[in-house]
Structures are given as structure tokens and as C-alpha cells.
Amino acid sequence: MELQYALELTGTFVFAISGALAIREREHDLFGAGFTGFITAIGGGTLRDILLDSHPLVWIGDIWFLYAIIAGILAAFVFPKFLSRLRKTFFLFDTLGIGFFTVLGVEKALSLGVRPEIAAIMGMFSAVMGGVIRDTLTNEIPVLFRKEIYASACLAGAIFYLVMNYFEVPRDYNLLISMSLVISIRLISVKYRLSLPRLE
Amino acid sequence: MELQYALELTGTFVFAISGALAIREREHDLFGAGFTGFITAIGGGTLRDILLDSHPLVWIGDIWFLYAIIAGILAAFVFPKFLSRLRKTFFLFDTLGIGFFTVLGVEKALSLGVRPEIAAIMGMFSAVMGGVIRDTLTNEIPVLFRKEIYASACLAGAIFYLVMNYFEVPRDYNLLISMSLVISIRLISVKYRLSLPRLE
Amino acid sequence: MELQYALELTGTFVFAISGALAIREREHDLFGAGFTGFITAIGGGTLRDILLDSHPLVWIGDIWFLYAIIAGILAAFVFPKFLSRLRKTFFLFDTLGIGFFTVLGVEKALSLGVRPEIAAIMGMFSAVMGGVIRDTLTNEIPVLFRKEIYASACLAGAIFYLVMNYFEVPRDYNLLISMSLVISIRLISVKYRLSLPRLE
Fold first, then answer.
1. What stretches pass through the bilayer (chains A, B, C) (predicted)?
2. How do residues A38-74 score in pLDDT, each as one tens digit?
């Protein structure tokens, strides 16, 4: 469990950095960037927990999440150029992040007693809704609706985890394989510019 | 009560179709359309229940609502041209839907013990906020702010239901008359291009 | 406490007016203006209470808040030109409002037992999120991201209140000084067009 906790804090830290950097090009001041980093980091898990009535919210009950977010925002402020040059690294971090938060979201929903179909949606929401809320606030078309495969990779990974879970695959293997599935789908779809068909 | 349950599922199904079809013209893939259908169908009731602290949310507690939504999204995927040609039919369905969900939202709020003034707002929210959230996420001006009478018809119907309820009009009659009021206001305002005056 | 209650109702009234007037220039009808006034007035406190799981929401539990909002909306409808000519007066009211709601939000969060760091965020959210939700629904860039110092003044005032509170400064003095700090920062930043640096 300690490894999982460390991963959660790291994922939150990385999401805060990517959120703060996401609005660099536009007319936002430091506060706006920090606010955006904060929303990106907490949005998905917060929406999941409000929908499932799970209180206190993770970042309200455990102050270390807030510190991880503040650290991420400060890192984005102090090393913006360095971090931006790491764009590829961050794409990788974000991709690791959505894989990890998808599976964690599914597990949390299951532990609260909902049906697997609902848990799959909650897993996807945990991973992507922080970015959706951020994009909506800043008047961008949410990443969800853009061309590359993003949220659908999370949903596929969530469903895969639930099927493996049904067949009683041990949790550690399942977590690792399902995360890898999300990450692989995302990486492959970006590399080969794959996208889902449109509704004609 | 069985009729009401069937109507609720049907309304959810129709809202999911109209949500999924709503973004056809734009650059969204199948997943985006499905996501939009989902949000449109659950948004209003979910906001109402979160504001009133009523858990579990309807679609989390009863899996048939999710299945109705998935069926609606699949219908929009498989028969998009057929369904779009039914635009007028759908306008009618959407209008029936907002009439029905307005009254249902009022009744649910009353059953949770809030004052009638609050119940009126909750009835309107149940009917229109799914569409508002959908439009906000996809960067559209919400239907609420467009010219035709829409949410105001729901608010009028909700207030009418509450007045009739105060005078102890039997519930079945009241439900039918109030729904008809919402539907009539909406249909007449669209047919004759009526709109409320603007703030000068 | 009676003074505080009167101030809360007055603040809600003023926020409703400024919300309803905010969209005058655009293509919205009277209902849209009323809806916007409502959202502006309740948004911040509602988000705070949902995040902290504090129910019933203030405006659901105490009907006078709804009446204050309706009065504000009606005032905006009946005297729009008069009120708009009072733009400077309203800027002042809005500024008083964010100062007041910031401190009140911090106090409410503390009373619900959260850590001071979380209470600071909740104070800021109480003051500014109504306007953020309003701007998001109407497709504007939220005031938060515009150039002048706004939400950051609230955050500074919230942190100041918490530090004074830690050093056991009596509540009445603390409330007054912290409110004045928010208001002063805001007034000075607008007068001298100060803004926080951007992320380069």
C-alpha cells in the first residue's frame, strides 16, 4: 500500500505540473496557472467521490495531496522552460497518470459497493475529468472531444480490469496489465495518429 | 408506478439519443458523441440529487438507467441518418421529456422535504441542466440562453404543479396538466417564434 | 450574529444583481439574466458546501436567501439603466462582497473541522466560484483568468485571516482586518492596473 500511496502523490504532482503548464501560451497570470494546476489535479477524483458520496474528499482528508499539488505548481513556476522542453516526458507522465488513476478509480468505486458498469465509468472519470473541467473553465474544447484516443483508452482499460477481476486474476497483476493496456492504447494511437470513427 | 418507471427509462433513452446526435456536425468521434449522450441524459437529475444530498444517484442505484443510456447511444450510432431525419420527432420527444422530468423533479424534491420554492427550481434543473452541462462542455452557448422559451416553460410548469398541489388537485391529474402546460408553452413559443423580452 | 446574517443576505442580493446585469449586453432574455443572477449568487457557497459535504445547502435550508436573490434579479429587471449607471457603485459592492464571503467561507470551513490550508481554498472558492460558473456557462473567460488581481486577493485575505486566527486575534477584529485586506488589494490593483506576473 505504501507504494500505491507514493504513486498517488506522484500522479497528483505530475497532473498539477501539466495543468499549470497547459495554459502557458495564453493570457493567464501566475495565479490562473496555479488555479488550473489545482483543478487538473483534483478534478477527476473529486467528481468521482461527489457522485459516489464518498467524504471527506481525498485532498480534504489528507493534506499531503495539497502539498503535492503546490509543489507541482511551484515546479511549473520555477522551471517552466526546463519543464516545457520535457514536453515528451510530460506526455509520458500524463499517460502514466491516466493509466494509474483509471485503475485506482475503478477500485475505489468497487470498494464503495457499486456495480462494475458504474465502476468502469468512475475509473474513466477519475482519469480524465480533471482535464475536462480545466479545459471547460479556460474555454477550450475538452481533450475528450479532440481527435486522438484518450478517454476511450481509459474506459477500455477500466472494462479490461473489471473482466480480469471477474475471473479472479490477482489484483497486482491485474492492476499492472490494465494500466499497461491504457498506456499502450494511448501511445499507439498518438504514434500512428489513430482515432475512432466519427458519427456520419 | 410501473408506468412512471417505464416513462423515466424512456425519457432517459430519448435524452441520450438527442445528446449523442447534438454534436454530429462537429469534429467529435464516436466516443465523444457517446459521452455527450451520457451527460445529457444524467446531468439534470444528477445535479438535482447532489444539491439535495440524495444518494445513491438514480443511475448509480439502478443499473437499468445506464442500459437505457447505452441503448440510446447505440441507436444514435447505428441509425444516425434515420434518426436525424426524425428531427421533428425528436424535437417532440425532447419536449415531452422536459415536461415529464420537470414534474418528476418537483415531486422528488418535495418528497425530500424541501420548500415548494426550492422544489420549483429543482424541477427546472432536472429538465434542463443535462443540456446545459452538455453545451458548456462542447463550448456552445447553452440552450437556456438562446432565444426560444425553454427553461422558463419548465419553471412555469413546475410552479403550476405546486399551486395545483397546494389546492390538493389529485396527483395524476396534476401531473398530466402540468406536463401539458410545459409542452404547450414550448410548442407554441417555437411555432410562433415567441421569446421573452430582453433586458434593455 | 444578526449583523452577520443581514450582511450575508445583502451580499447575496448584490451578487444576484451583478450576475443579472453581467449579461445585459448579450443576446439573453429576461429568464437567462435571472438564471445568471441566481447562479452567481449561490455558486460559490454551493460548491464549498458540496466539497465539504455540508447539507442542507444554505439557500435550500433558509428560504430567505432565495428571496434575496429574487429581489436582486427583480431590481436588475426594473431599474437596469439606473443600476448600470451605478457601475462604479457595483464594482464597490462586488468588492465588498468578495471580501465578506471570503472570510465567511474560511470560518464555515474551519467550523466543519478541516485544516486551515483547506479552509483558505474554501474561502476563496466561496467568493469567486459563483462568478466563475456564471462565466463558464455564458462562454466567457472566467474573471479569475483575466488580468486584474481578483481571486488572488481573496486567497491572500483568507491566509491572512488564518494567520491572525492562529495568533488568537479576536474574531471581530480579525474579520474586519482580513476583509479590508481583500478589498484594499482589489481596489489598489484595479486603480493602478496591477497584475501578477505571467508564466513565461
1. 6-23, 30-51, 57-78, 118-137, 149-167, 173-194
2. 999 999 999 999 999 999 999 999 999 999 999 998 8
Cα A176 from chain centroid (whole Å): 16
Q: How confident is the model at residue B42 (pLDDT cuts 50, 70, 90)?
A: very high
**CB distance C145–A46 less than 8 Å?**
no
Q: Does A53 touch chain B (CB under 8 A)?
A: yes
Cβ of C116 under 8 Å from any chain B Cβ? no
Question: Would you give the DSSP letter of residue B140?
Answer: P
ipTM of the complex: 0.90
Q: Angle, nearest 10°, between helix axes A171-191 and A87-111?
A: 140
Residues of A in contact with C197 (CB under 8 A): 29-30
- Going by C-alpha positions, the residue among C62, C91, C75, C71 that lies closest to residue C190 is C91
A196–B30: do the CB atoms touch at under 8 Å?
A: yes
Sole residue written with cell 425553454: B150
What phi, psi does A167 have (nearest 5°)? Answer: -85, 15
Beta bridge partners of B29: A198
Nearest CA-CA distance, residue A145 and chain B, Å:
5
Give the pLDDT confidence of B10-29 residue by residue, as tens digits. 889 988 888 887 765 555 67
Closest CB to B77 among A117, A121, A199: A199
Kindly state whether B80 is in contact with chain A, defined as any CB-CB distance less than 8 angstroms.
Answer: yes
